[in-house]
Each structure stands twice: as structure tokens, then as C-alpha cells.
Design a protein that fits this description.
There is one protein chain. By secondary structure, the chain is of the alpha/beta class. It has 2 domains: 253 residues, Glycogen Phosphorylase B (Rossmann fold, 3-Layer(aba) Sandwich), CATH 3.40.50.2000; 209 residues, Glycogen Phosphorylase B (Rossmann fold, 3-Layer(aba) Sandwich). It is 45% helix and 19% strand. The chain has 18 helices and 17 strands. The protein has a 9-stranded mixed beta sheet, with helices on both faces. A 6-stranded parallel beta sheet has the order 14-13-12-15-16-17, sandwiched between helices. Strands 2-3 form a two-stranded antiparallel ribbon. Helix 11 packs parallel to helix 12. The two termini are 15 Å apart. The structure holds GDP-alpha-D-glucose (GDG). GDP-alpha-D-glucose (GDG) binds next to helix 1, strand 12, helix 13 and helix 14. The site of GDP-alpha-D-glucose (GDG) has 23 residues, from helix 1, strand 12, helix 13 and helix 14.
């Protein structure tokens, strides 16, 4: 791993990987949260020592002694947690409003879902300032600051405004939109300038980087793209110099693969397979989100069953959905749409002893998740747009029998790494999804094995430690 020299690693993300929960006796305890960023960053901070700054799920007005809970939680870790104090009203406007009803849909190129509201932007600026001050409270001279994701774009600008001279980098976990989409945002110039307060700005794919450089060229009058060396492009303005690079995020491959071989996971895998008595499992695992293409996937499955009666009773779609952002109207509408579709498909095609879709709406334990990955013949990873998509990488790492097929959307960042070995589909093209599922169902074992091995080798080589190393090397160089 890269050496941080004297300094520590200071990470900031919207959420901490722990969240305050009420206990039955009226007290509070910490629970754990999941998500792509958390899966990726936990092993990294464990290796380095440092501080993780983020929100712990409590509001200022609740007056909970969160610092003490976080201190205890951090005792066995190689790093410590620092929470930020946010009021309920501000959090709603910053998180629900600007972050998830403006930046999220805009950056996923779905601007019809955007709510452009000045009051939300103001709360976003305020909360980013609060994050900057929490970082400043903890900061030492040689610390390296690494800010994560769209919730905190402005934090770097606030740190610089307060005289922070430390090296500072930003990584965007979601896609970066094309210029025309970006320009729809009334605050486009401020947001573009805020991104240029970091020494290094990192993206998942070349396409995201290209889109960002076009925004810089078009909106920042004095910016010069000074060329690309070892894949890092330099942007120079009158006052500053920035690196822009591509760093496809990944997982702790060895950990996933080793855990997938454990006795516990093997037992649950067998139980799942037995429970489905020979039906081939097609797996979908997603956070509840319109970017993940879940209704489109269900409609394709419905059409597959309708046009291929012989497949009925032979296959089962296991759709696991992880709760997310339900207090946003679009998400609760999406949940209803998905549940109606599941009900319709099951109502229409179920037979004695066979239900076509098994649907669940809750989180799984890591063990159960791995067992589902192992038990499935096919993983359907078909987002309409996705920064990377770690489910695809985890599915491969867990597929120790090398008998699974990955069907992958051409609009997921991971496509660039898996394009020769996954079966690539356009999730909007129902016919192509149907024919690809049929192809996967009849693929020769040798073909499956070779493709899976290639994808596994790719994730093993470019794992999450490689990702951090590449990022820190670029930041320091
Ligand atoms: C964002 C970007 C980018 C899911 N369900 C359970 C569970 N998970 C874990 C998975 C995986 C993660 O959540 C989901 O990661 P994704 O990458 O698929 O998606 P986002 O949450 O949208 O993440 C994405 C990522 O950031 C990283 O940069 O790849 O494009 O949108 O790790 O394992 N974990 C457990 N139970 C579940 O039920 N234990």
C-alpha cells in the first residue's frame, strides 16, 4: 500500500458506516450501514490509521451523546469516527433535497427527476461548511484529506477558504453527466468551481472524466487542459493546478472470495438451492433506486415468461431490494411500481409448487448475500446508469464454482472492465435482455468458466487496495 508519510488519512463522506439507533429501554446504540462507498472504504481505513468524518444518523435537536458511542465503537478499530451536527430541517434540504432530488438524478442523466430549489442549495452549502469545520477541528499538518461523493462537493472550497493548505482530493462515486445535462443546473458555475478546489479529482470511468473536462473547458474561462501523462490529466487555472484521473473502484476480492468458501456460506448456498428444487436462479440485488432499472428488468422477465412457456417452472427471479431513500416521493412511487409488477407476474404465471419471482425488501447479512451470489446461475445487473456497480464485482468474487453468468448493463461503469466476459445488454431494450437471458441459460460450462475466471482475475488484480494505491499515488505524485 502507498505510504502516507507522516500524515494520517482523513476521509469525509455523508454517512458514517455506523448509525445511531434507539434501544427498547430508551437508550441508544450504534448499528451498521451498507452501501458501495462503505464496502470500499472500511478496509482502507482499517489498514491506514485516520479519521472518518460523517453523519451518524442523529439530529442536533435530539441531543444524543453520540461522541461517546462513537468513541467506544472506534476502540477496536484502527481509526476513529467524528460525527457532524446537523439539524433535521437542514439535513432534509441538504440530503433529501439538493443531494438526492437534484445532484443524484442530474448526474445520472435523468434531469426530468430534478428539483432545482435555491433553499436546498443554500442548505447544501451550509452543511458542507459544517463538514469543513469538523475536518478542521481534527486536522494536523501532514494529514491527507479525501472527500467522497456528490454530497460534499463544496467542502473542499470551504476548507481552502479557511486557509487549509493540506493536500486534498475528491472522488465521485456516481457518474459525471455530459455538459448539456450539467448546464441545466442553475448553480453550475459554483459547482464546477468547487470541484476545482481539490488537488486531485477522481472518477470511475474515462467517460466521466471526459464529461468533467468538457464542463471545465466550457465554464471555467481561464482553465487550460495541460495534457495527460500516465493517464492523469492536468488542469491549470491562473491560481491553481489540478489533476484529474480515472480510478475504477473495487472490492476486497480476497475477503469476499474466502468468505464465500466458508462452511457457513456453503451451508446456506445448499439450503437455497434445495429450497428451489432445481430451478435456475436469476439474481437481482439492488438498492431501491430508479437508476438501477428494476421495473425494466421485471418487465423483461415478464415478457420472457410470456413468450417462452417452456421456461416456466424451470427458472426463478430472486429480486432482493435493499431499502433506500423511501422518504423521497420518487422512491416510494418506485417501490409501489416494483411491488405491483412482482404481484402481477406472480399472479399471472404462478403454478402449483412454483412462484416466478421471489421478492424481498430488507437488507441481508453478508453471509446470506454471498450465499445468494453462489447459488445463482445468472446475475442480472442492469442499471439504467451506474457509476461503477459493486454487486457485479462481488458476484464474480463469490462465484467460486465458476458456473455463473453475469448479464451486465452497458451503462454501468464496470462495463469497461468486464466488456469481453460479461454478457452486455441495453437495459432499455427488452428483446436484447430476453435473448441474453436465454443465451446465458444455455451457455456451455467451459465458456462460463473461462469468462468467470477472466472477470475474477480482473477484480483480483484491480481490487480495492489497488484502487486506493492508485488514487494516493496520483494524489502524491
Ligand atoms: C454507489 C454508486 C458505485 C447491498 N445490499 C446489501 C448489501 N449491499 C452492498 C453490496 C455492495 C453495495 O451495497 C452496493 O454497491 P453498488 O456499487 O452496487 O451501489 P450504490 O450503493 O448505488 O453505490 C455505485 C458505488 O457507490 C461505489 O463507488 O459502485 O455506482 O451508485 O457492496 O454488497 N450488503 C449487505 N446486505 C445487503 O442486503 N450486507
Amino acid at each position: 500500500m502507498q505510504d502516507l508519510k507522516k500524515g494520517r488519512l482523513i476521509i469525509a463522506s455523508n454517512r458514517l458506516p455506523v448509525v445511531v439507533k434507539k434501544t427498547i429501554d430508551g437508550g441508544y446504540k450504534l448499528g451498521h450501514t451498507s452501501g458501495g462507498l462503505i464496502t470500499a472504504m472500511k478496509p482502507v481505513l482499517q489498514k491506514y490509521s485516520g479519521i472518518w468524518v460523517g453523519w451518524a444518523g442523529n439530529y442536533l435537536e435530539e441531543n444524543i451523546a453520540v461522541d461517546e458511542l462513537l468513541r467506544k465503537e472506534g476502540e477496536d478499530l484502527n481509526y476513529k469516527y467524528r460525527s457532524v451536527d446537523i439539524s433535521l430541517k437542514d439535513y432534509e434540504l441538504y440530503y433529501k433535497g439538493f443531494s438526492n432530488e437534484m445532484l443524484w438524478p442530474l448526474f445520472h442523466n435523468m434531469s426530468a427527476y430534478c428539483k432545482f430549489e435555491l433553499i436546498s442549495y443554500k442548505a447544501y452549502q451550509k452543511i458542507n461548511r459544517i463538514f469543513a469545520h469538523a475536518i478542521i477541528d481534527e486536522l494536523m499538518e501532514d494529514d491527507f484529506i479525501w472527500i467522497h461523493d456528490y454530497h460534499l462537493i463544496n467542502t473542499g472550497k470551504d476548507l481552502r477558504k479557511n486557509g487549509v493548505k493540506n493536500k486534498m482530493a475528491f472522488f465521485l462515486h456516481i457518474p459525471f453527466p455530459p455538459l448539456e445535462t450539467f448546464n441545466r443546473m442553475p448553480w453550475r458555475l459554483n459547482v464546477a468551481k468547487a470541484l476545482l478546489s481539490y488537488d486531485l479529482i477522481g472518477f470511475h470511468t474515462e467517460l466521466d472524466k471526459k464529461n468533467f473536462l468538457e464542463v471545465v473547458k466550457s465554464l471555467i474561462g481561464d482553465a487550460v487542459i495541460d495534457g495527460t501523462e500516465l493517464d492523469i490529466t492536468t488542469v491549470i487555472t491562473k491560481k491553481s493546478k489540478h489533476k484529474v484521473g480515472v480510478f475504477p473502484i473495487s472490492i476486497d476480492y480476497d475477503k469476499f472470495s474466502t468468505q464465500a468458501r466458508s462452511e457457513e456460506v456453503s451451508k446456506i448456498t445448499n439450503d437455497i438451492k434445495k429450497g428451489y428444487s432445481g430451478q435456475k436462479i436469476i439474481l437481482g440485488i439492488d438498492r431501491l433506486d430508479y437508476s438501477k432499472g428494476i421495473p425494466q428488468r421485471l418487465k423483461a422477465y415478464r415478457a420472457l415468461l410470456s413468450k417462452n412457456p417452456k421456461l416456466r417452472t424451470k427458472i426463478k427471479l430472486v429480486q432482493i431490494m435493499v431499502p433506500s431513500r423511501e422518504d423521497i416521493e420518487k422512491y416510494s412511487e418506485l417501490k409501489s411500481e416494483i411491488e405491483e409488477l412482482v404481484g402481477e407476474i406472480n399472479g399471472k404465471f404462478s403454478q402449483l409448487g412454483w412462484i416466478p419471482v421471489q421478492y424481498s425488501y430488507h437488507s441481508l447479512s453478508r453471509t446470506e448475500l454471498l450465499a445468494y451470489y453462489r447459488a445463482s446461475e445468472i446475475a442480472l445487473v442492469t442499471p439504467l446508469k451506474d457509476g461503477m456497480n459493486l454487486i457485479a464485482k462481488e458476484y464474480c468474487a463469490a462465484n467460486i464454482d465458476k458456473d455463473g453468468v453475469l448479464i451486465l448493463s452497458e451503462f454501468a461503469g464496470v462495463k469497461y472492465q468486464f466488456k469481453d466476459d460479461a454478457l452486455i445488454v441495453n437495459p432499455y431494450d427488452e428483446e436484447s435482455v430476453i435473448s441474453t437471458i436465454k443465451k446465458a441459460l444455455s451457455m456451455e460450462p467451459q465458456d462460463k468458466q473461462q469468462r468467470m475466471e477472466n472477470m475474477q482475475n480482473n477484480v483480483k488484480k484491480f481490487d480495492v487496495y489497488w484502487w486506493v494505491d492508485a488514487f494516493l499515488k496520483a494524489a502524491k505524485g
